[in-house]
Amino acid sequence: MNVNSVEVRLLVLIALLFGSGAAALTYQVLWLRLLALVFGVTVYAATAVLASFMAGLALGSALAGRLADRVRSPLRWFGLVEIGIGGLAFATQWLFAAATPMYIHLQAWLPHGLLAQSALRFIGSFMVLLGPTTLMGMTLPLALKAAVGPATHSGRRISVLYAANTAGAVAGALMAGFYLVGTLGIATSFR
Question: Model's pTM, two decimal places?
Fold first, then answer.
């Protein structure tokens, strides 16, 4: 790979990771709003979203760390993972709606009280969000594997990609929190 193709590849990966970070945090804000409707209290909704988000990132990163070394085209896998994230994130609003009858049925078997009710809601929410968040955790290791070329400057490339992903996350959180939800609503924002 010559220097120009490495630079072009790095620019493409910067753009992809910026967009990936923006989408991930947009979804996180939307999930927080959805779960506020499920839990009725934002603290429990935030806990469920953050716990599943961090667990999924850790699990996905661990899986992709092993996968990235075995695949021939980590950038292709990155694209497939992003498609999976979009599909699963889009489906979360319907998965939460589908879980409601199950929650109502199981609620009759639980002892009355906030702890048992909240635990059931948390477990259900966690399971719905674990799929897309695990895929989100896979994106950075796959992109980093695609970016690492010659050993010189690989640390700089990785830090630039990580910064792009973080900057995208900030942009996504701001866009979702201050524009999308208020202007388009939760359901439309998922599209």
Answer: 0.86
